[in-house]
Amino acid sequence: MNAMNTVTPAPRIAEVKGLKVHFQSKQGRVHAVDGVDFDIRDGEMLGLVGETGCGKSVTGRCFLDLVPQPPADIAGGRVLFRPRGGKACPDCSGKGCETCGGTGAETLDLLNIPAKKMRQIRGEKIAMIFQDPGKALNPTLTIGAQLSEVFLQHKSHELLEAAGVGEGDRGWVAGSLRRQANQREGSFDRWARRFPPLKGPSRRLQKALDEKVAAALAETQIPNPRRVMTSYPHELSGGMRQRVMIAQSLACDPDLIIADEPTTALDVTIQARILDLIKMLQAKRRTSVLYISHDLSLVRKVCDRVAVMYAGRIAEVGTVSQVFTDPRHPYTQGLLNAVPRAGTRRGHLASIPGTVPELVDPPPACRFVDRCPKAMAQCRGADPQLLPVTEGHDVACFLEHPREDTAPETPRLETA
Amino acid sequence: MQLRDYIIRRLIILPFLVFGVSVVVFTLTRIGGSPIGVYLSHEMSAAEVQQLEERFHLNEPLYVQYFYWARGALQGDFGYSGVASAPVSQVFWPKLAATLELSVVSAAVAVMLGLWLGVFAGVRRNRWQDHVTRVVAVSGASLPLFWFGIVLLIIFWANLGWFPVGRSDADIWASMPHPTGLYMLDSILAGSWRGFVDAVWHLILPAITLGFGAVAIITRMMRSALVEELQQEYVDAARAKGLPERLVLNRHARRNALVPTVTVIGLTIAFLMQGAIAAEIIFRWPGLGRWMASAVVRGDQATIMTYVLFTSVLFLFANLVVDIIYAKLDPRVRLGD
Ligand SMILES: Nc1ncnc2c1ncn2[C@@H]1O[C@H](COP(=O)(O)OP(=O)(O)O)[C@@H](O)[C@H]1O
Ligand code: SF4
Ligand SMILES: [Mg+2]
Ligand SMILES: [Zn+2]
């Protein structure tokens, strides 16, 4: 690699560095995520692919501090996030330093910020689309109520403006409206808003809120948003529910969306439509998306770059064309050869023999060694590092980067 | 089905159910023996006894007897209570008022305390607060109510003398009118602070005895329901929107955990009605339960019939209320399907 001609890549909105998430279980420590590195560029769609159980969801949830601790333990690493239009880096006042990775932009370590700050980021700067919209929507609240929460949480000032409450307004009416907008209202507030003088401004606030919700739903091509707003999740189809989830995640126009297998739980017939919708909205807004999937063909269709994950590690990362036309890691090669057959369990691969290794206290070795058709002696005893093979294409395999501490394997001579 | 239609349908069915219950109970009590016992005395001749039997139609077949009983009941005549030495209809309300006061107070406290404790333990799952709550709840659910009541009686009445037994101080009770029969309410209406304190003072031990088991059951149910809800993905989705934990808990998890708990609360009403019998005997509370217990011992069939009929109507109503709350809490519930 030539250190001199580093092309300035697109600014990176997020960087995951050496992320380790372990789970304490009866059998021992499960190394679910064990040293993951990747970055997400501004406005790109990065695919994170791998078999079920390889740690994709845990990695994605780390962005929003949604990994339950315990049983999880963030054993190391950083998840850096640079909000768009953020302030200048406080350490170097914008000149570029180590904290901000030379960008001069405010950089937050999402694993290490106060809970209050995290709550401001959730939904507003980083949003999440969950795998199963039937489970991620509260069954006992209307769609309208659930979408309203995002706006109330992050856009209460706009709503108060619509109700005619200014910054300096004092008095009980302004106070009650503030409580309404900040989701702190009591039963008395709810009762009192049926009568003047609260009635008028409270209605205006509600109307502004409903308009925002309806507009968000309309953007995901939901027909008749007003009717959907008064529906409960069980009254909608799976595809419609996922549109609602997407509308909810896009509500505040976030900088980054974590889409955790957003089409896996859906009927095959609607998967493509939801995928197109996500792609369309992403392209329109230039939102960065971490698209988690176990389905390579989907990732190939919509993503700009792809990171292949195996047993808690990144095996290979590069642009879609680099990884798909020139796969270097034997696991990626296996994935690309895998043709899903009938009877293959969802998320499992047909063509690679063997199973994903136990992640309980793994020894230092390539995680793929027991299934790898090209495994060598040097593949055990040390972890392969994720290193570049060409510009922007990194692979963690001793085939590409032989260990320096062991003699390179002598190629076997063909005996005629 | 619309909730209103459901309620109407259930209310229409109600009289038929009550009819069915009354037939069963009537038959069972009559199998137990003739109700004539409470009217008899040693001096009566065989002829006199037969005269009495004819007067009360006891010589007729069972279904005719039922007919006479039902006709009386429909007219508000539930027979003569030998235990109370008065017509059942006359003593029923004052006794019911005493039982209502006791069970409503302990039910209300038990529901509030149980829900609160369940949430308290559920959000602190597997921490020491959860373990302490569990120990208290398990003991509450497994201690026999009569034993627990007697222990309270021995400690706080016999030894420490902090609390009285019975329902009231006779002088204070006599010092005011009793338009409702509910002592606490009557004392408020009469503006008697002394009476109110007296009412509460007498209520505390039997209410604790009666409510402890209910608190335990509600706590355990609410805790496990909340723990389950907190593991659902919509809770993480709510967090992912940026909601503070206060709203994640109150608006999402806790509300949904109430759905299964409401059913259990409905069942504890049954538990309370049964428990009231023991609590009233232990604390000499002049309510329905104690009356019923004496009636069973003395074969006072008019009282038994009325009591059982009343409790069955109460359960049917309690079920209806539970169904309504259930449907209000969970939009997925399709009543009557
Ligand atoms: N809540 C949890 N408790 C214990 N172990 C967990 C938990 N969540 C995830 N894991 C562990 O992490 C591994 C990776 O999980 P996950 O990230 O959900 O996989 P993926 O999304 O790639 O299918 C799982 O195999 C499991 O062992
Ligand atoms: S490091 Fe070795 S075992 Fe691992 S993928 Fe490369 S060749 Fe296979
Ligand atoms: Mg997953
Ligand atoms: Zn800096």
TrEMBL record, chain A:
It is a peripheral membrane protein. Its EC number is 7.2.2.11. GO terms for biological process: peptide transport. It comes from the Bacteria. It is found in: Cell inner membrane. GO terms for cellular component: plasma membrane. Keywords: ATP-binding, Cell membrane, Ion transport, Membrane, Nucleotide-binding, Translocase, Transport. Its main location: membrane. It is an enzyme of class 7 (translocase). GO terms for molecular function: ABC-type nickel transporter activity; ATP binding; ATP hydrolysis activity. Residues 16-336 form the ABC transporter domain. It catalyses: Ni(2+)(out) + ATP + H2O = Ni(2+)(in) + ADP + phosphate + H(+). Belongs to the ABC transporter superfamily. The complex is composed of two ATP-binding proteins (NikD and NikE), two transmembrane proteins (NikB and NikC) and a solute-binding protein (NikA). This is Nickel import system ATP-binding protein NikD.
TrEMBL record, chain B:
The keyword 4Fe-4S does not apply. Residues 96-326 form the ABC transmembrane type-1 domain. Keywords: Cell membrane, Membrane, Transmembrane, Transmembrane helix, Transport. Coiled coil: none annotated. It is a multi-pass membrane protein. InterPro entries: MetI-like (IPR000515), MetI-like_sf (IPR035906). The chain crosses the membrane at residues 12-31, 102-123, 135-158, 199-218, 257-284, 304-326. One of its GO terms (biological process) is transmembrane transport. It is found in: Cell membrane. GO terms for cellular component: plasma membrane. Pfam families: BPD_transp_1 (PF00528). Belongs to the binding-protein-dependent transport system permease family. This is ABC transporter permease. It comes from Histidinibacterium aquaticum.
